[in-house]
Amino acid sequence: MSRHEVTRVAGIGAPGGRAAEAALLVCAEYADTALYHHSLRSYFFGAAWAREHGYDYDSELFFVSALLHDLSLTPPFDSHALPFEEAGGHLARVFTAGLGWPDARRDRAAELIVLHMRDDVTPQEDIESRLLQVGTSADVSGTGLEAFDVSFRRELVGAYPRLGFAEAFVGHFRDQAERKPGCAAAELVAGGWAKRALDNGLDRA
Question: HD domain: which residues (predicted)?
Fold first, then answer.
């Protein structure tokens, strides 16, 4: 299977169309495999959670944002001044401008990426942002992991292996915290988040 193709997990696939294909291509080119797999697992966790709870959502917007949400942790897109999620929001606006998305939709892609590092929003307030929060929280620190069947977790990790993701991601956040001490990543590192990330049950799936 090509790295740019998406394996279905528990009957969930990727949305079709130019935007999703471009997001896959860019994420695969700039993220290492562990970070690329994390981006896809975040999407699948969110999509599975929405299906379980019966929520409708904009699958294209969510997928594109999930694939782009951590690219500002990579050297080509790392900002020396902005928190990585804010830099990621700007990256999303540039990326979606190339797709011809209108301003309001470009703003939404940026908003999802910024909000995934902020306080939780409810599905009623913003379903797509909530899905990215659910997906990233489960995949990074194991928060809310109990909401997903063990069989789903095993299938997801089987399709998109962890490959030392936890250790590498903690390293990314510690680097962000050292260089940008006022950012959300720094608050997480100071609050003992790293231990939760390293103890994520997905690594025993």
Answer: 36-133
Q: How far is it, in rounded angstroms, from Cα 171 to Cα 36?
A: 16
Identify whether the C-beta of residue 128 lies closer than 8 Å to the C-beta of residue 61.
Answer: yes
pTM of the model: 0.96
Q: Which pLDDT tens digit goes with each residue over 46-83? A: 999 999 999 999 999 999 999 999 999 999 999 999 99
Tell me the C-alpha distance between 202 and 113, whole Å.
23
Q: What is the CA 94 to chain-centroid distance, rounded? A: 18
The strand pairing partners of 124, in sequence order, are: none
User: From residue 72, how far is each of 30, 80, 109, 150, 173 by CA, in Å?
Assistant: 10, 11, 14, 31, 12
Which CATH number goes with the domain that contains 92? 1.10.3210
Q: Residue 159 carries which DSSP code? A: H
